[in-house]
Amino acid sequence: MVTKPAIIVLSDTGAALGARIRDVLGGELHGLAKRCSACDVAFEDTLAHVRELFAEGRPIIGVCASGILIRAVAGGLESKRDEPPVLAVSDDGSAIVPLLGGHHGANDMARKLARALGSTAAITTAGDVRFGVALDAPPAGWTLANPEDAKPAMAALLDGARARLTGNALWLSESALPFAGEGTIELVATHRYMEGGPSRLIYHPRTIVVGVGCERGCAAGELEALVSGVIAQHGLANAAIAAVVSIDVKADETAVHEIAGTIGVPARFVTADAINEIAERIANPSDIVMREVGCPGVAEGAALVATGGGGNLIVEKTKSARATCAIAEAAEPLDAGLIGRARGRVSLIGLGPGNPEWRSPQASALLEAAGDWVGYGLYLDLAADLNAGKTEHRFELGEEEARVRHALELAGSGRDVALVCSGDAGIYAMAALVFELIDAAPGEGGVSDAARRAEVTVVPGISAFQAAAARAGAPIGHDFCAISLSDLLTPWEVIERRLVAATEGDFVVAFYNPRSLRRHAQLGRAIEILRTHRPPSTPVIIATDLGRPKEKMRIVALEDFDPEMVDMLTMVLVGSSTTRLVEGGDGKRWAYTPRGYEKKRRELAS
Asked: Region 273-283: what's the mean pLDDT?
């Protein structure tokens, strides 16, 4: 379910209020195209757009009449447990009405907005109104183990039943719930596993941390068996676990991430120095561990660091053949985001030529997830529609290694980083350089150990030669190759040798970096070589600013090609000896390279 709110506005006046709402809650401003001049996302049909957002599970805040939102989402209502928050805000901001998803964040969003705008939140859910609490929506850091039983329990309390509290939960004890010593509705706050029911609601505070250590390459199954066994043996609830924590040199250990994923919590990492600061609290110190990683205990040490000064071990170090596990409990629910650091990730994003329609859903999702964007300024601008609250790290052309190194070191500090490229990140872009720096030794220009342990995700994009080919028809329908004419990193002698081989092999050739402000002669020389083995009529595709407002696409014959037709933003495709032109019924010309089906048809006919 997408959690970033979509703020619906229908006029520039509404957009001004919407911008204030965005400042408070985050999210995007979605504006009716014909009435709103400056929004993050424009739409043409209000009802259809809201309906689509609701189907995606997107929180919706409409600066409009509540009836508009009701009519839009009515057909998509199924289960109140699955519906996203939907709020209506009056044009002047004086009234805020949670329409749906009150216990999925809508009520809390309404209260937060009301405080910021100095207005009124019209909360209508019965439990919130009478008792000041929603039993099926515990506060951050708490989980209700049996949410299906919350409705009958609340109904009983509203009908006059009394409650009793077992355990400590201030958000319950300080509410207006009708508590009595012999109450029939039991509310239990515990980190232990318990069975609930309509008269017993089980609330788990996320106060438990699982500390783990393991040998390099430990099988994920071994660590999972150890941790799950310890949890079961001590009667603990998975929902009470805030994080799986280890030492930072294990940030890239698959087994640690697998067990965190199995439990459904983040994996977090602390330093040996942090563990050494609480070394006297470690119950089972080890000289061997001290020699290996520089601290006397990983599992116990990591768990104690994560739970802070008020935490204590409730399960001491337990061992399997290659792994260890210990469990600590904090005094209060924990925010996993404040424990140590995450592994960190670099997502290598290929935007394609620049048109958002050619950007993959995976690329968009990772751009939205990343907190830091690194790249050449023009490329960052091409993704501006997704840039809400991102920290940008802009670099100039020619600073490729600096930007890659910066992205990796940011990820090494635990950040989620998008390294933004045009086209495909793995084709004449940054992906190869990322792995080159990871592969290099620290003393030979490599990155830090922490950066080498960051997760790397390479996202495919539409490369320029694919976009140019699609605009022209199907010129790469048969064998083709791509050659960069930039000799800044590759000697021209090597490039020319490859040009000769491609020419003699009769490949369709895609030229990257055909010209620059300082390089003019290379493209002319490349065309001279191709002309030695190509008919003068061979189609040449010249594609400039693909996917952008100034896009220009031409097809000329090889004999008529002039390098002056090409600039820095142009892709050149030269057909093989078999590439042909065909004219459609509308007079448009298409280039294609047949694969041999004509020969197959003749053979079948004979």
From this structure: 96
